[in-house]
Write a structure and sequence with these properties.
binds magnesium ion, 8-stranded parallel barrel, about 750 residues, binds phosphoenolpyruvate, alpha/beta
């Protein structure tokens, strides 16, 4: 239905703006007319436009209401004052009492002391802030959402005007980003490991919206619907045609497809068109709006939804602007795709055989694009600041996922070193591949159980290529995170069943959901814990929402369909928690029996030992478990009160400290005599020196990421466990300093491969 009355204002304003711009005066004059027009229409005493200049300075370019002499004289740094704040964060502000805001910076030359309220929006184009548009009033006026949205729409029009007219030379602002042809190192975070060399392909060369103001609103709505239909057909084709090797990749595309059908979002676009924008400007506006609302979130799930939405918006914009996507045949054979962010469908658009690596300005390790890239074995570095502005298409570029850095236009000697590193890596892979079929047994014939950690179906292929004994930890939360609603029992059972099929008789330990903490599922609603690692997470959620946990256990029993099954509960802090979880499991086993469904031929139940308090409950715990798996990632963080995700304290406490090793030694001595298996499945298990220490204190089962199996197996096969256990007994009584160096020397003396 048309919402003509309230929107007639903005629509009219846009028409007037267009007329003003069409008169083709000089830009300075046009900007002056724009501020007059906006002030008038919005009943504001002041309207000003600040534009970004070299040195990250915002300069007043036009004003209605402030002292005219302040134009080109008033300058604020990005981040300084309210205007600087709007530019720095790229988000609107609306304040009824601006002068008392902590960010307020008073500029006497403007004469603005008499204005109390302020609303401002960033002028953004292709994701970059070009300036700020502000209105001010004398009274303490509360600007409503619709007024702010109107300002945003005007800012879009201004963005096109400013960039097309080159009122500020693009070169001038680019200098801020340090564009030059010098080699450059950009540090980011590892989204997927590996190293690749190639030539840069700038993803999503910016889509320029030429037409912003609609001539005919109804016609624009039709164009939007047609474009949406076109995108839907593209995704369907992708779903049919793409080689969907794993359930998750398909699932990710299906989730994306749900976005295409999302009515709420389409409604937003229609509303934007209703306000007088063209279809393409409406799409951009709706996306910017969602981005403003959700962009500050650090929640990976929400950020991921944004990438999907960006992917969809780009596809729509390509269609609506009639721009053809780059002809793939013109792209280099060794593509390193550089993007602000990407959705999974966009990654799959690139030819897999030519894609070497990806660099993103945003992204998180749990983002869909990272999950798909990991499955395809493509290194990705994320959160590489400003990289798009610093790279030119065709630049030679190195993506070093292992060290979380990107080398742009590296010098020849650096390139050679990277080539050597890539070769050495390939050589190591060959060496470890040769160990694949040899048993992980020590020189004195102790057989170690060597397992891998997994969390995606695609990971299961590594069982064969590493020769691992089984899966010591299957993290079930990842498939839950790529969905927008709770997967039902059938979907879960299908997935776990596939895992067991692919394991082909090798044991798999399924861990029940370990969400909460930083892995928030919106459909569980655990937002807002102040101390999430110690908050409502893992088994705590499972026991508070027993129906959810029971559905997962039911799915596991169904998936096993009579085959052996191992289930592990995470974050157990008290024995009663395990007993309650076991009770739910018993209820599900009874349910299956009553329905005549097969129950597992052998069921093993275990707990993760991650919370130190469990160490003093082992006597009452062991009668109820078949195994204990030590999660050193969390255990270390709780033992030392040191956030595992905080880079500032990463490495501060050594995992080879006597404190941790003595604790683990104590656990092994308590648990093993009771016939209960003890394994380690934290990252520590995958590092050869640490693995040496763990075996030497009596651990006989390790589980690690697939890439660590080869190096750890090489260590095991060169080790005399009797000797190292003896050495360790003495070492543990030594003064309290980390044993890393001592162990290294021991390994060197005894030809142990670490
Ligand atoms: C651990 O805490 O060591 C562990 C293996 O679990 P996660 O890393 O999934 O928390
Ligand atoms: Mg853990």
């Amino acid at each position: 239905m048309e919402r003509s009355t309230p929107l007639a204002g903005p629509r009219m304003l846009l028409k007037r703006l267009r007329d003003t711009m069409a008169r083709a005066e000089s830009v300075e004059v046009t900007l002056g007319e724009v501020v007059r027009l906006v002030a008038n229409e919005m009943v504001a005493e002041v309207c000003s436009i600040y534009l970004l200049r070299a040195g990250e300075v915002l300069e007043l370019f036009a004003t209605q209401g402030l002292n005219p002499s302040a134009v080109h004289a008033t300058r604020l740094r990005v981040g300084e004052g309210l205007v600087g704040d709007i530019a720095a964060h790229g988000r609107p502000l609306a304040l009824d009492d601006a002068q008392h805001h902590p960010q307020f910076a008073y500029r006497p030359e403007t004469g603005e002391e008499i204005y109390h309220s302020l609303a401002g929006v960033p002028i953004v184009r292709a994701g970059r802030v070009l300036g700020v548009l502000v209105v001010q009033n004398r009274t303490r006026r509360q600007y409503d959402e619709e007024e702010v949205e109107t300002l945003q729409t005007i800012a879009m029009v201004l963005a096109e005007l400013v960039s097309a007219s080159h009122v500020v030379s693009p070169n001038e602002v680019q200098q801020v980003d340090g564009i030059g042809l010098l080699p450059l190192r950009v540090d980011g975070v590892q989204l997927t490991p590996g190293v690749a060399i190639g030539r840069a392909v700038l993803h999503e060369p910016r889509i320029v919206i030429q037409r912003v103001v609609a001539e005919d609103v109804e016609q624009e709505k039709v164009r939007f619907l047609e474009a949406l239909r076109g995108v839907r057909e593209d995704v369907d084709r992708m779903l049919e045609a793409h080689d969907m090797q794993s359930g998750e990749q398909r699932e990710i595309l299906e989730t994306f497809r749900m976005f295409v059908d999302d009515r709420g979002w389409a409604e937003r676009v229609r509303e934007a068109i209703d306000s007088g924008l063209t279809a393409e400007a409406g799409v951009q506006r709706a996306f910017d709006d969602v981005r403003t609302r959700l962009g500050q979130s650090t929640d990976p799930y929400i950020r991921e939804r944004l990438s999907d939405l960006q992917d969809l918006s780009n596809r729509l914009l390509l269609r609506l602007t009639g721009r053809v996507a780059t002809d793939p045949s013109t792209l280099p054979d060794d593509m390193i795709v550089v993007a602000r962010d990407m959705g999974p469908a966009e990654l799959l658009d690139y030819d897999r055989n030519r894609l070497r690596g990806v660099v993103l300005e945003e992204g998180s390790a749990l983002s869909h694009v990272a999950i798909v890239a990991r499955a395809l074995d493509i290194p990705v570095v994320g959160r590489a600041p400003n990289v798009l502005a610093r790279v030119e298409a065709g630049d030679p570029i190195v993506v070093d996922g292992d060290n979380a850095q990107v080398l742009v236009r590296p010098a020849e000697d650096i390139l050679q070193t990277v080539h050597l590193a890539i070769d050495a890596r390939a050589e190591r892979r060959r060496k470890y591949a040769a160990l694949r079929d040899l048993p992980p047994a020590t020189r004195d014939q102790a057989r170690i159980s060597l397992n891998m950690n997994a969390g995606l179906l695609i990971d299961m292929q590594h069982l064969d290529d590493t020769g691992a004994d089984g899966v010591g930890l299957y993290r079930t939360e990842i498939p839950f995170m790529v969905r927008s609603e709770f997967p039902d029992v059938d979907a879960q059972a299908w997935l776990y069943g596939r895992v067991l099929d692919l394991a082909d008789g090798r044991p798999v330990v399924f861990r029940t959901l370990d969400v909460g903490g930083d892995k928030v599922l919106p459909y569980i609603g655990a937002f807002g814990d102040e101390n999430p690692a110690m908050g409502w997470r893992a088994i705590r959620i499972g026991l508070d929402r027993p129906a959810m946990l029971r559905r997962q256990l039911r799915a596991m029993i169904l998936a096993a369909s009579g085959r052996p099954l191992s289930i592990m509960f995470p974050m157990i802090a008290e024995v009663t928690e395990l007993l309650r979880a076991r009770h739910l499991l018993d209820l599900e086993l009874d349910r299956s029996r009553r329905r005549g469904q097969p129950v597992p031929e052998r069921l093993r139940v275990g707990v993760m030992f991650e919370v130190p308090a469990l160490a003093w409950q082992l006597d009452s715990l062991v009668p109820h478990v078949d195994f204990i798996s030590i999660g050193t990632n969390d255990l270390l963080q709780f033992l030392y009160a040191a956030d595992r995700g905080n880079t500032r304290i990463a490495g501060r406490y050594d995992s080879l400290s006597p404190a941790l090793l003595r604790l683990l030694h104590f656990v092994v001595n308590k648990v093993r005599p009771a016939g209960v298996d003890v394994a380690v499945c934290g990252e520590m298990a995958g590092r050869p020196v640490e693995a040496l220490a763990l075996l030497s204190i009596g651990i006989r089962s390790l589980s690690m990421s697939p890439g660590a199996i080869g190096p750890v197996k090489a260590m095991i096969r060169s080790l005399d466990l009797n000797e190292s256990a003896g050495f360790m007994t003495t070492a543990l009584t030594q003064p309290d300093r980390p044993l890393r160096e001592t162990l290294r020397l021991f390994a060197a003396d005894h030809a142990i491969e670490i």
